[in-house]
């Protein structure tokens, strides 16, 4: 089956943001006098939104610092989100080819909405992705399919027109919950085995493979 739209996850799928996310969280932890974490430890904490990231970064007896850590991290991240973040190899060309073929593009992410828009437009330019859905409060945190449904509604298409491309079990679950075909990617923050365990039947190893799904 061929598709007319692609919905992308952001962190670990379009852009490698891991170092900057870890750096911002560790900055906040340091300011609060709390233990910091390695980049690899942070990799395991990311995926369910910034609030959950902050919760996981704090010891169980320090959860009362959650709100303060969250605000420190948010401010620092907006200041430093381009320091070490990079596009995945081949991603820009794949996005250009999709656009050239008339495929319609969107982003659904558990990153805060303001940071999501800033990063997507920095790397891809304004208007490349028609809709960018990030987190505002606790609304539509993946695997809640609400953000994906909103994209489909705004773009005036059917769920059967889309694939959802992401690097995590959360993305696979989101696609399944939304009735959209999930496509897992191996270049991001989670392993192939985790994607398969989440129900990912279609898994790709390079951005160029996305083109095989379009009409």
Characterization of the model:
The chain is of the alpha/beta class and 215 residues long. It has two domains: 5-16 and 86-213, HAD superfamily/HAD-like (Rossmann fold), CATH 3.40.50.1000; 18-80, DNA polymerase, domain 1, CATH 1.10.150. 43% of the residues lie in helices and 16% in strands. The chain has nine helices and eight strands. The strands form two sheets. The protein has a six-stranded parallel β-sheet with strand order 5-4-1-6-7-8, sandwiched between helices. Helix 6 links the parallel strand 4 and strand 5. The chain is globular. It starts with a strand and ends in an 11-residue tail after the last strand.
Give a summary of the structure in a few sentences.
Helix content is 43%, strand content 16%.
